[in-house]
Design goal:
Number of helices: 1
Radius of gyration: 14 Å
Strand order of the largest sheet: 1-2-3-4
Largest sheet: 4 strands, antiparallel
Shape: globular
Structural class: mainly beta
Length: about 100
Protein backbone atom coordinates (compact mmCIF):
# COMPACT_ATOMS: atom_id res chain seq x y z
CA UNK A 1 0.00 0.00 0.00
CA UNK A 2 1.44 3.41 -0.88
CA UNK A 3 2.35 5.92 1.76
CA UNK A 4 -0.15 8.83 2.04
CA UNK A 5 2.60 11.15 0.79
CA UNK A 6 2.75 9.13 -2.45
CA UNK A 7 -1.01 9.50 -2.93
CA UNK A 8 -1.56 13.10 -1.85
CA UNK A 9 1.85 14.78 -2.14
CA UNK A 10 4.08 16.15 0.55
CA UNK A 11 2.35 19.53 0.89
CA UNK A 12 -0.83 18.09 2.41
CA UNK A 13 -1.71 19.34 5.86
CA UNK A 14 -2.63 15.98 7.37
CA UNK A 15 -5.05 17.64 9.82
CA UNK A 16 -7.21 19.18 7.07
CA UNK A 17 -10.24 17.34 5.71
CA UNK A 18 -9.96 17.25 1.92
CA UNK A 19 -13.48 16.00 1.16
CA UNK A 20 -16.49 14.27 2.72
CA UNK A 21 -17.80 11.32 0.70
CA UNK A 22 -21.50 10.77 1.38
CA UNK A 23 -23.27 7.92 -0.38
CA UNK A 24 -23.49 5.22 2.29
CA UNK A 25 -26.68 5.15 4.33
CA UNK A 26 -25.36 2.76 6.99
CA UNK A 27 -22.23 2.11 9.03
CA UNK A 28 -19.03 2.01 6.97
CA UNK A 29 -17.36 -1.35 7.56
CA UNK A 30 -14.24 -1.35 5.38
CA UNK A 31 -12.00 1.08 3.50
CA UNK A 32 -9.40 0.09 0.92
CA UNK A 33 -7.13 2.89 -0.29
CA UNK A 34 -4.71 2.66 -3.19
CA UNK A 35 -2.95 5.11 -5.46
CA UNK A 36 -5.80 4.74 -7.98
CA UNK A 37 -8.85 5.03 -5.77
CA UNK A 38 -10.81 4.19 -2.66
CA UNK A 39 -13.30 1.39 -2.09
CA UNK A 40 -15.70 1.61 0.84
CA UNK A 41 -18.21 -0.97 2.09
CA UNK A 42 -21.10 -0.80 4.50
CA UNK A 43 -23.25 -2.66 7.01
CA UNK A 44 -26.04 -2.42 4.45
CA UNK A 45 -24.09 -4.55 1.96
CA UNK A 46 -23.19 -1.74 -0.44
CA UNK A 47 -19.76 -1.24 -1.99
CA UNK A 48 -18.62 2.03 -3.55
CA UNK A 49 -15.59 3.04 -5.58
CA UNK A 50 -14.35 6.64 -5.34
CA UNK A 51 -11.98 8.72 -7.45
CA UNK A 52 -9.10 10.32 -5.61
CA UNK A 53 -8.83 13.01 -8.30
CA UNK A 54 -12.21 14.66 -7.71
CA UNK A 55 -13.65 12.47 -4.88
CA UNK A 56 -16.56 11.49 -7.11
CA UNK A 57 -18.38 8.19 -6.84
CA UNK A 58 -17.25 5.93 -9.73
CA UNK A 59 -19.57 2.97 -9.14
CA UNK A 60 -21.82 1.32 -6.60
CA UNK A 61 -22.95 -2.28 -6.23
CA UNK A 62 -25.03 -4.09 -3.62
CA UNK A 63 -22.33 -6.64 -2.80
CA UNK A 64 -24.01 -8.61 0.00
CA UNK A 65 -27.43 -9.11 1.59
CA UNK A 66 -26.01 -7.90 4.91
CA UNK A 67 -22.81 -6.27 6.12
CA UNK A 68 -19.64 -6.48 4.01
CA UNK A 69 -17.06 -7.64 6.54
CA UNK A 70 -13.89 -8.02 4.47
CA UNK A 71 -12.39 -7.10 1.13
CA UNK A 72 -9.23 -8.08 -0.75
CA UNK A 73 -8.21 -7.03 -4.23
CA UNK A 74 -5.58 -7.37 -6.89
CA UNK A 75 -5.34 -5.40 -10.13
CA UNK A 76 -8.05 -7.47 -11.81
CA UNK A 77 -10.05 -9.25 -9.10
CA UNK A 78 -11.97 -8.02 -6.09
CA UNK A 79 -13.08 -10.46 -3.36
CA UNK A 80 -15.60 -9.58 -0.66
CA UNK A 81 -16.97 -11.45 2.32
CA UNK A 82 -20.15 -10.66 4.17
CA UNK A 83 -22.18 -11.47 7.24
CA UNK A 84 -24.54 -13.29 4.87
CA UNK A 85 -21.97 -16.12 4.91
CA UNK A 86 -20.92 -15.57 1.29
CA UNK A 87 -17.56 -14.89 -0.31
CA UNK A 88 -17.95 -13.19 -3.69
CA UNK A 89 -15.32 -12.88 -6.41
CA UNK A 90 -15.79 -9.92 -8.74
CA UNK A 91 -14.11 -9.93 -12.15
CA UNK A 92 -12.19 -7.15 -13.90
CA UNK A 93 -15.32 -5.36 -15.15
CA UNK A 94 -15.41 -3.67 -11.73
CA UNK A 95 -12.64 -1.26 -12.69
CA UNK A 96 -10.62 -0.28 -9.65
CA UNK A 97 -8.79 2.59 -11.29
Amino acid sequence: MPDWKDVYGTDLDSRACQSVLQSHISLITFLDLSATGLISTSAGGDMFSWSLDDYAEKWKVNAHDNSVTTLQRSESILVTGGSDGKVKVWNGRWRLS
